[in-house]
Amino acid sequence: MHAADTNGSRSTEQVSGPDTTSDAAHRDPSDEAEHPEAAADPATPDAAAPDSLAADALTRGTAVAIAAAVRDGAVTAGQIVEAALERIHDGDARVGAFATVRADQARTESHTLADRADLDILPLAGVPVAVKNNIDVAGEITAAGSRAGIRTPARADHPVVRRLRDAGAIVVGLTEMPEGGLWGVSDTPDRIARSPWNARHSAGGSSGGSGAAVGAGLTPIAHGNDGLGSVRIPAACCGVVGIKPGRGVVPAQVGVDSWGGMTENGALATTVADAALMLSVLADRPALADLEPPTPLRIAVAAGSPSPLIRVDRHWTAAAQTAARLAGEAGHTVVPAELPYQGATTALALRWLANAAREAGAVANPELLQRRTRVHVALGRAVLRAGLIRPGQVDRIEARLQDFFDQHDVVITPTLAAPAPSARSWHARGWLANVVASVRYAPFTPLWNLVGWPAMSVPMGLHPRTGTPVAAQLAGPPGSESTLLCLAAQLETAQPWQRTA
After folding, report:
1. Under 8 Å between Cβ of 178 and 187
2. Residues 9, 230, 258, 280: which is the catalytic one?
3. Could you tell me if 375 and 431 are in contact, meaning their C-beta atoms sit under 8 angstroms apart?
4. How far is it, in rounded angstroms, from Cα 229 to Cα 226?
5. Is 305 a catalytic residue?
6. Backbone torsion region of residue 62, taken as left when φ is above 0, otherwise alpha when ψ lies between -120 and 50, otherwise beta
């Protein structure tokens, strides 16, 4: 759930899931036969077929490995891009990750990259990246999951996109999201973003398309942004790593005012090393890519629900407990604790409404907003008129958290409270149904947006009933991005997670 501008895109209703008894989940061939449509145009007839080495690098490799292969000249960026476009063409109809595929532009940019004098030192040389469609990519429409915005292509790249390009990444497409980033599921009248593990379930939101793209192996990394959990929620739903940095670490500039400073741009990736590499580029801090084992940490495990009204599925509780056990085995001190959530629910609810109202004030065609969004915006305007947003609400919560972190370095919680809702046309349902669906399964993530502190999600196995991933959330005080990444790398080493591709 996040912030943005606004516009729209396609929809498929595939529903078969993977065989979760194997080491990797695979697409159901009957699914693709039944739904042959794809999000990208096929490669042009005269396009060179991807070199087998490039296809293998993309299939099995990480962003770290792909960039190394391109820097060393083992493969070209053009070959990698062709392999990525082929995978998107073959696989995206099932997961609905992409609102736009930049096939011709990506090919052109990959050829231009080959002429760069600094190719041999670029950290993301030739790495295909997907960008969430609520920040500007030059020449593309920043639709933000809506038909209500301006239909004029962006003139320049957002600073985050510029940093990715400068590092050698190739933007292959723009990913799907719910209107304005408001909801914890990602669908529009044109498309439903689905979990690669079980297409009956949503990919989460609001960076759902980015989560689906990485989880399905269409791209090794993807950009997302996070205003109430919108990177961590889809990361958890799609079985990938997702990190939201603390305030000011990465340029935000999302929508009107980045949801009053609650929204941050972050990374989704298959591995912790890839997430760390991408975040190091977004933050322009190369040291974030270094994943040395951290000194022994004081880790709190807070698996209890943030609200007495929300029940936590025991398999999600177990995900946090598994992460805690692995951390203890790595030499960290781990103790049970309760996070000071008091007051957070009210403060978050008011800001969720008010921020939507502020964003809607900049929409070109508000009459085209979806019904659920119009209700949300109307309530937000009432909150603003009543003067219910007060800085002191957050100050008190942050003070309690600072006291908590005087005793602890990191806290582990479940990322979610339950599997993702069903993959369906939530945009056509009422406001209350959308609110309940988002809040009921994703209550753990928003606290860290309220205070602007870093948090991330790491996979911790599969849910036995749905076959979808479960995950643990790691969070810490300002400046702890490197600590979280290094701890996550230890957890990954101790218990490597399954991949769908």
Report:
1. yes
2. 230
3. yes
4. 5
5. no
6. beta
Q: Can 206 be counted among the known catalytic residues? A: yes
Supply the DSSP string of 94-136, one letter for each residue. HH--EEEE-HHHHHHHHHHHTT-TTGGG-TTTT-EEEEETTS-
Q: By the 8 A CB rule, do 301 and 460 touch? A: no
How far is C-alpha 449 from the chain's CA centre? 14
Catalytic pick from 206, 210, 258, 280? 206
At 260, the amino acid letter reads: G
Residue showing tokens 């305007």: 381
Neighbours of 240 (CB within 10 A): 34
Q: Burial of 48 by CB count in 10 Å (0-12 exposed, 13-18 middle, 19+ buried)? A: exposed
Task: Name residue 194's beta-bridge partners.
Answer: 202
* Run of H or E including 393: helix 391-407
Q: Do the beta carbons of residue 415 and residue 319 sit within 8 Å? A: yes
Residue where the block lists tokens 């870093």: 454
CA dist list (Å): 416 to 84, 440, 458: 30, 9, 11
Find the catalytic residue in 132, 186, 210, 482. Answer: 132
Report how far residue 475's alpha carbon sits from residue 454's, in angstroms, rounded to the nearest whole number. 6
- Average pLDDT for consecutive 10-residue bins of the chain (501 residues)? 41 34 34 34 39 61 96 97 97 98 98 97 98 98 96 97 98 98 97 98 98 98 98 98 98 95 98 98 98 97 96 98 98 98 96 97 96 98 97 96 98 98 98 97 98 98 98 98 98 93 62
